[in-house]
Structure formats: structure tokens, C-alpha cells
Amino acid sequence: MNLTITDVRLTPILVADPPLLNTQGVHQPYTPRLIVEVETAGGVVGVGETYGDTKYLELARPFAQKLIGRQVGDLNGLFVVVEEVAVDRSRVSGQVDVGGLRGVQTADKLRLSVVSGFEVACLDALGKALGLPVHALLGGKVRDAVEYSAYLFYKWADHPEGVRAEKDDWGAAVDPAGVVEQARRFKERYGFTSFKLKGGVFPPEEEIAAVRALARAFPGHPLRLDPNGAWSVETSLKVARELGEVLEYLEDPALGTAAMAEVAARSGVPLATNMCVTTFAEIKEAFTKDAVQVVLSDHHYWGGLRNTQQLAAICRAFGVGVSMHSNTHLGISLAAMTHVASTVPDLHHACDSHYPWQSEDVLTERLTFDDGKVTVSDAPGLGVDLDRDRLAVLHRRWLEDDGSLRERDDAAAMRIADPGWVTPTVPRW
Ligand SMILES: O=C([O-])C(=O)C[C@H](O)[C@@H](O)C(=O)[O-]
Ligand SMILES: [Mg+2]
């Protein structure tokens, strides 16, 4: 079996996204993703998916060229080769800014975010070539299904008038009643039993009221609130006092390890993060200061499925919980998340996924949630098939875009509705 990589195809696409609100603004009507295909001399094709903004494409293109002639099973080599690709320094700030819903922005992290799409594609190809599911290549599943939580968002019924968009059927959710209604639908449609509300949108009192309404409507169900670091330490402590009884955890209430450590020390509520621990380099300080009790991994920016397993092992050693974060993603990534999550022994919290918000996909068959869970596929590779016609349609949308949607920019999308909008400084409350 010849496992030499002979071709790597990169297809940037724009996928429909509803008007979901977060502390920065609102989601654009279409968001960029990159689909990676790795083909071997034996004719096997593996697929991966990652961020599709220009800064990722700029790295992915030269990286793809360097992989031709290498072995698809040389996963460690991906991390060596990517170091040879220069990162445009103007693309990284080295800071956690409020635009960084995913934490610090570094050259390494940019590279890892690109590698992850290729690592998944290589694992898919390797699995298909060997007749083994990706979870087997990762050491084997320890569960047959992976549980996800309902990812609730404040949202408008529609994107601003005059903006080209796909219509969704979720309606508006801008108050406690709307949030509860959205949660009911999530439960009805997918069977989710835990709920996460994306906060940092309205003043904390309104978000506290929404979580209380959820607690009344779904007694005993795990609840989370995530304002993406929008609150001060004092506000975080107030919310923790008011909601401590009903929250499974509070996610990134305040920005940065020092602030998180203070909130953790002064409140009894467990804190989760996908903002202050987003790289291996950030682990030591955060764990030493006991700043977080749950790390929400994301294989995209941690550098793939095997790095996610390494993160889980470190968390285990420190008695810190692990679960998964998600941004807008398609079925390839949901399959990848499910494979890796199935191999992590102590996964004690339902993982996040935006997938229910994505009405479009590039697969011949969408993945489904049953009782809030995705069944772990035992088919070779990821167990998904690319729909080339759909891929072409979504790529055409990217080609035809004048450039305004090719970079995800929630603040710019908000300015269409509210021309005076500027990305809020933090703490916002
Ligand atoms: O858990 C989180 O912090 C996120 O999911 C960040 C995301 O960027 C989310 O807020 C979004 O896409 O609006
Ligand atoms: Mg978060």
C-alpha cells in the first residue's frame, strides 16, 4: 500500500451562519471555513476542516506544497514541517484581546490551527487505507457515543434587512423566555440535556434571569454561562453568588489567568475556559494558580486530535477536568471531535458544538444527535463522505464574495445593524 501523499487540495468555502450574538457583535450571514483533502499514491483521500480566514489560508497553501511526497502516517512530521512556513507577524498580536474569543493570538497557535486540519485529513486517509476508524488510530474508543450540550445563543430572528442571508427557523431569543424556548427546541430536536448560554451580550442581571429561567424550566439539568471574559472580577463574583447553585460551571467570566484565579479563589463555582488556557505554554501558570477547573479543548487550535489527547493527559495529572469548545464548524470537525472525545477516559462534561446551527454541510449525510449524543463511527477513517457538489457550491460562494465575508468579523457584522458599534473594551460590566 503506497501511503505517499501525491496531492493536497484546499477548498475555502463560505457557510451560512445565523445571527448569533456574542460580546463582540453578531455572526456574519456566511462564515469562512477551509476544507483540506489529502490524497495518497494509492488513491485514498482523507478530509479535514479548519478556519478559513485569509491568515489561515496564507499558511495552509505553502504548507500543503511541502507535504507532497511525505508519508500520510508521518503525523509528527507535520509539526516539524509547519515550522518552515513563515507567519506574517502583522497577523498575530501575542495578546488576548477582546477580539480573541479563542484566547491569545500567537504565531504558534496560528500554525497549530492549520496543522489540525491536515492532521485530521491524514488520520482519515490513514484509517481508510488501513481499514481502521480514527479512534482506533488514537488508541481506541472508551465509549460508543459522545455527549454534547445545547449551545444556546441570544439571537435575532433574521440578519439585518438588506443583507443576503439564508433564513433559519429558530426565531429570535433576546430575553429569558426566548432563551427557554430555544432550549426546548434544542431538547426536542436533538435530545440535549445540558445547556450552555453564550453570555456577555446583555447586562449580567438579564443573563442571570435567563439562566434562572432555564433552571426552572429544566430542573436538575447541567447549565453553563459563558460571557467570554466580559465581566470584572467583582461582577463575576456577584454572578457566581447568584447562580452558584444552578451552574455546572461558569465559563471564562473574566479575562486572563490572574482574574480567573481570583474569581476561582473567592467563589465556590467551578470555572471552565477556552480563553485563558488555549496553548500548552499557558497551562503551568493557570494550573499552579488553580485558575480553572475545566479546560475546554478545541482540536483546531490545540493542533489536532493527538495534541488534544496530550492536553487531556496533562489535565488528568493535575486533577483538572477536560471537555470541548466549539466555534462554527461542519460535520468533518464534528466527526473528528467525536473520535477524539471517545478516546478520552475522564470526559465528565458534555462537549460544546455549534453544529446544530449549521444548516449547510459538505457531507453526503449529516451527522445526527440522538439523546444529545453522536455515535462514534467504526467505519474506516472519520466515517464521513465528502459531497463534492455541495463543496463546489459553497466554494463558489467564497469565490464570488467581494472579500467582505472572507474574514470572520462579528463587530463588522454588528455595525451593519448599529453603525456606531465598536468592539467593547473589557471588562464590559
Ligand atoms: O465558548 C466560547 O468561548 C466560544 O464558543 C467562542 C465562540 O467564538 C462563540 O462565542 C461564537 O462563535 O460566537
Ligand atoms: Mg467559551
Automatic annotation (TrEMBL):
Top-rank taxon, per record: Bacteria
Matching entries from CDD domains are given as:
D-glucarate_dehydratase
One Pfam family in the UniProt entry: MR_MLE_C
Q: Which class of enzymes does this protein belong to? A: lyase
**EC assignment:** 4.2.1.40
Q: Which cofactor does it need?
A: Mg(2+)
Q: Which InterPro entries match?
A: DgoD-like, Enolase-like_C_sf, Enolase-like_N, Enolase_C-like, GlucD-like, Mandelate_racemase_C, Mandelate_racemase_N_dom
Q: Which residues form the Mandelate racemase/muconate lactonizing enzyme C-terminal domain?
A: 176-270
Name the UniProt key words of this record, in alphabetical order: Lyase, Magnesium, Metal-binding
Give the pathway: Carbohydrate acid metabolism; D-glucarate degradation; 2,5-dioxopentanoate from D-glucarate: step 1/2
Q: From the UniProt record, list the reaction(s) this protein catalyses.
A: D-glucarate = 5-dehydro-4-deoxy-D-glucarate + H2O
Q: Which family does it belong to?
A: Belongs to the mandelate racemase/muconate lactonizing enzyme family. GlucD subfamily.
Record protein name field: glucarate dehydratase
Protein species of origin: Streptomyces shaanxiensis
